[in-house]
Specification:
Strand 4 and strand 5 form a beta hairpin. Strands 7-8-9-3-10-11 form a six-stranded mixed beta sheet, sandwiched between helices. The protein has a five-stranded antiparallel beta sheet with strand order 2-1-4-5-6, with helices on one face. The chain contains eight helices and 21 strands. The model has no long low-confidence stretch (mean pLDDT 88). Helix 2 packs parallel to helix 4, helix 3 runs antiparallel to helix 4 and helix 4 runs parallel beside helix 5. With 371 residues, it is α+β, with helices and mostly antiparallel strands. It is globular, with a radius of gyration of 22 Å. The longest helix has 17 residues.
Length: 371
């Protein structure tokens, strides 16, 4: 499964010139408002015909302006999930879901209604009208309808943007199950680093219509040079960890990764489950020696790999911790006081409560994917 995109289009005051390739999994299009994210999604869906370029999904050409190929919208087999659910209010949830199957072009259904209902946890909603659903429930039904159309690719244009934090927390686990349960490429448009960190395999960063970063999401998010493109307050890294054990008495979970152990708030996952854990740079304190008498439960041995120091008071420190990468944000004064240099051995100190539950997601696995 792969996605290849190369687009050139001139608007009155905006020029799009974007080229990228992405493997299987979730490709996140990230950028500020006006960067060109939705333009790329609309070009892939056929809602916008770029002046020049080509688009290939899983080896099939949807657009090649040089060869005069432009597959019509209704034949592209694109499942498009917008910010607003766009469900039919006069139909039940079941009928809305079946609508997707009615327009799959007669293709054999490899994804069944039962598959979708089970994946998205919406069996209890089938008889309801859509007006009685919460925002998170409506988005799950919308995703299910798109899946039942048997799309070549699923486009999700900021699907959580209209939801509050509670509804976002509700739907993110279902998006992880969607990513891992079906062999369907997903292009996920977002400006939220927390969503990208939990879901994305590949990250494409857009700025003023151009691709400025493209690669594995974990590598880009841990690269100090990728900021301020992603927003300095959101700088951080992604660790691949496994659940070791839970302590019901104090409500904490012990996680293991290549750099050691992390104590985090209770994670409702069985021992052995692989997780993606996002650690923000601003939550890490650096020390030359393991601190005594501290409330922080996580003290990890690290080595300074790189220092990104601009002209301001803030410095980003890239760290190696086992086989993993961490990113720390400290002041220039702290850098000087500690005498940190590339190759310095020190300790990263992280409070358990700094590892927020919303920043812990299921690690991507393609095993048993359907599609």
């Amino acid at each position: 499964m792969s996605l290849r995109v190369s687009l050139a289009h001139q608007f009155s005051r905006f020029h799009m010139q974007a080229t990228f390739e992405a493997p299987a999994g979730v490709t996140a299009l990230f950028g500020r408002s006006g960067a060109g994210k939705t333009t790329v999604a609309n070009a892939i869906s056929g809602l916008l015909r770029p002046q020049a370029g080509h688009i290939r999904v899983n080896g099939e050409t949807l657009l090649d302006t040089a060869k005069g190929i432009d597959v019509p919208v209704h034949k592209r087999r694109i499942g498009y999930v917008f910010q607003d659910a766009r469900l039919f209010p006069h139909l039940s949830v079941r009928q809305n879901l079946q609508f997707g199957g009615w327009f799959n072009g007669g293709r054999e259904a490899t994804v069944t209604l039962d598959d979708v209902v089970e994946l998205l946890g919406i069996r209890h909603l089938l008889g309801r009208r859509t007006g009685a659903l919460s925002g998170g429930e409506r988005q799950r039904v919308t995703i299910g309808r798109a899946l039942l159309s048997r799309p070549r690719i699923l486009l999700m244009d900021e699907p959580l943007a209209s939801l509050d934090e509670a509804r976002k927390a509700e739907i993110l686990p279902y998006l992880e199950r969607l990513r891992d349960g079906f062999n369907i490429p997903i292009l996920y448009v977002s400006h939220a680093v927390s969503e990208v960190a939990r879901l994305a395999t590949t990250l494409v960063v857009l700025s003023e219509g151009r691709v400025v970063r493209c690669g594995p999401a974990a590598e880009i998010l841990a690269n100090p040079n990728a900021f301020p493109l992603l927003g300095r307050q959101e700088a951080g890294s992604i660790l691949t960890a496994s659940v070791v054990s839970h302590d019901a008495h104090d409500g904490l979970t012990e996680l293991s990764f290549s750099g050691g152990l992390i104590i985090a708030p209770l994670v409702r996952a069985a021992p052995g489950t692989k997780l993606r854990v996002r650690v923000r740079a601003r939550d890490i304190i650096l020390a030359l020696r393991p601190p005594d008498d501290t409330s922080a439960l996580n003290i990890l041995p690290v080595t300074v790999r790189a220092i990104s120091a601009g002209d301001g008071a803030i410095v980003d420190i890239a760290l190696t911790c086992g086989d993993a990468s961490l990113l720390a944000r400290i002041t220039r004064r702290s850098l000087d006081n500690l005498g940190l240099r590339e190759g310095t051995s020190c300790f990263a100190v992280l409070k358990s409560v700094a590892v927020a539950r919303r920043d812990i997601g299921i690690f991507e696995s393609r095993t048993g994917a359907r599609g």
